[in-house]
Amino acid sequence: MKWRRFLVSRFVRLAFVLVAITTLTFLMMHLAPGDPARLVAGMDADEQAVQIARERLGLDQPMYQQFLDYVGGLFRGDLGTSFATNQPVTEEIAQKIGPTAQLAVLGMALILLVGLPMGIIGAVLTRNGHRWFEIAFSGSTGAMASIPQYLIATFLAFLFAVTWQLLPVAGSGSIEAAILPAVAIAVRPAASIARLVRVRTLEVLESPYVRTARSKRLPTRKLYLAHVFPNSITTMLAMGGVTFASLIGGAVIVEQVFARLGLGTTLVHSVLVGDYPVVQGIVLLLGFAVVLVNALVDVILGIVDPRTMEAGR
Amino acid sequence: MNADPVSNDILLDVRNLSISVENRDEIPPLVRNVSFHLNRGEIVGIVGESGSGKTLTSLAVSRLLPQGLSMSADRIDFDGHDLVGGSDRELRTVLGTNLAMVFQDPMQSLNPARKIGAQMIETVREHRGLSKKEARALAIRSLEDVHITEPAKRLKQYPHELSGGMRQRTMIAMGLMGEPSLILADEPTTALDVTVQAQVMQLLCDLNDRKGSAVLLISHNISLLSEVCDRIIVMFRGEIVEDLTTAKLLAGPDHPYTQGLIRAVPDLNTDRGVDLVTIEDGQFDVEREMNHA
Asked: Membrane spanning segments where (chain A) (predicted)?
């Protein structure tokens, strides 16, 4: 019963956010300067050709009509047609989503597998009084969390691909080619997560309930896994949605640096040439992904810590 | 206080326990040369104001002192086990089962992310090797012992679904799982409202009666302790100033600090128009210097 109410409330919230994203991406593109009809017809086309292009694209219709057509298309799975290639936008996205999805999954895995253990180990070492460690930890993660992703990407490419030639410098064909970009987008969020998890874990380690658990003299492994871990990951999970969003943002830039043919590269290119439907489609898709991940995080949080279910209603 | 330490009746024997801050020699010890003992089945109270060292003493006995504090003692003997020289590994089982801890804040002392059942059964699963089923049956009996209704349902609930009084009773039930010879309760009722306080105190006395567990009760409230304890130890600024039977305490304690503590507790006859008695800082300094010159 509690679960049903929780899921319904999350679903309603999700629906609202999705409507907002759809409306905003539409408005954003239509309020942006430039005339797509001119772009489609060509820079030296005469006024009549531009007018024909405008009618063909439906841009002569009033804005609300265009919006209704757009939303109607969405329900049929139709995101429009690319001005540049004349291909359906869905087709464009399907071709480019692979490398980006690969990057996002690898990046997220890296963040969790590196950031989380680093934070927990950091907390345990801090608590055991390793002062030098605390300083080194805060310094290095602080630095890592503040370096822009394109700098990290360039640095990694220079070191591992150019100087040592261990990994491919660019491309999106092989899994090896995905390693450097994945590391490049993961460094910042992993460092932020490690910092957050460390502080949270320190709190948990000093909490009365961990003292209770210590009084039971459980093996250290059980103390950490059963009593400390579930309480320190809630912070990380709550951050998960934001982290994923920053990951997507990072992917757009990092794909450029490594010349990967993914959604990010396509997005930037489409913005530059004014290919509105493609931009709209990709932004909508990324927005949906972020919102869905956030909703998923809420559900997982509800499982791990049932109090959040009641608090967040 | 000077009972024969080899006697079988002695459950806990603490000699010259001192607790100090690690690597800070300029800070005087927080607890100084504290010696006391507890007989089997006895209910003993430790009373004192905040900072008198009563909680640290109990944490030292249970080997749960926070990081950064160190202890030294000539002897801490619990149920035939040497708590000073012994290693954590050797003492795991005895401390995990024979000693039950009940902490001050029942809202914070149970793990919020785990079900009551999981928290209750892990001690006996670990130290007694009980199966999940046996441990659950024991947990249900244990919850019944502390008068919690619908115990089977409680095992599936989370701490935030229980009231404060129920949580504290659950803490006690959790301690009972290991059939403890000593229940160490640090301000077990301070965070609860008055009617629930009385229930919890009554429960501790009942358990002492029925199961024979000794209880070491720590509180700042001397009148609360004098209602249930056989003997009361008075601590002040890290030292024991008096260790006397409750009868003697009620007849009139010797130490001026103890007299002060008794005066500081209001009762129904206390004149509302007059400020409550307080113990001023420095009031007993002369006394301390006389005793420890």
From this structure: 12-32, 103-126, 147-167, 173-191, 224-254, 282-304
